[in-house]
């Protein structure tokens, strides 16, 4: 899916447009629409601020009015934190992403509307939107710059389909997860040395102690390199103690 178009209404600084492009591409969005950018277009400061997101900058399209910029879009979310004297549904970025995903999948274009850096969208622009999108932030300090706001909304779109595991183990190229043969050899090596120094002298407690020690190392998700290191540590300590 192409994802929602990002529509900036009267953005003031080219650098800010560039940072928006960078935030968009971080989240897999590429369609940038500009309504009357103050400093004109194309913009060298925008390209510099994009930090390599040139595909977004090169593909940006210009419009004279907000109505023209959203003419082909079926669902528009106006991003603003200021209360407006109008009846509008207010959604979070997460909710907006959940609504936009099936719309885009069905072929209905969606868009996220952002206003000027200093004052945001005017009421006439908000009136054109299907809903207001408000980013939940600290109520005592709710100021977001333009790129922050775009990223907050775009990231929820990206996250809604992201399959990255919440946790994973990154192993160096030279290592791999230790297999059971290596782990059992480590356990037996350690247990022999513990027996030699009398650590498990209470015979009836020995099976429980062995299980507890083995479970400690099982939870550690050791690599083959780490097993070799631990066995080296055990050997070094026993040699030093003279056992």
Backbone structural class: alpha/beta
The helix/strand series, from N terminus to C terminus, equals: EHEHHEHEEHEHEHHHH
CATH topology of the largest domain: Alpha/beta knot
**Average predicted confidence as pLDDT:** 92
SS elements, strand count:
7
Rg over CA atoms, rounded to whole Å, is: 29 Å
Q: Provide the domain count.
A: 2
CATH architectural category of the largest domain: 3-Layer(aba) Sandwich
The CATH H-level superfamily of the largest domain is SPOUT methyltransferase, trefoil knot domain
Descriptive terms for the model:
243 residues; 2 domains; 7-stranded parallel sheet; Helicase, Ruva Protein, domain 3; Alpha/beta knot; 7 strands; alpha/beta
Describe the protein's architecture and organization:
The protein contains ten helices and seven strands. Strands 3-2-1-6-4-7-5 form a seven-stranded parallel beta sheet. The termini are far apart. Helix 1 (14-26) runs parallel beside helix 7. The longest helix is centred in the last third of the chain and has 18 residues, at 224-241. By secondary structure, it is of the alpha/beta class. The chain folds into two domains: 5-159, Alpha/beta knot (3-Layer(aba) Sandwich); 180-241, Orthogonal Bundle (Helicase, Ruva Protein, domain 3).
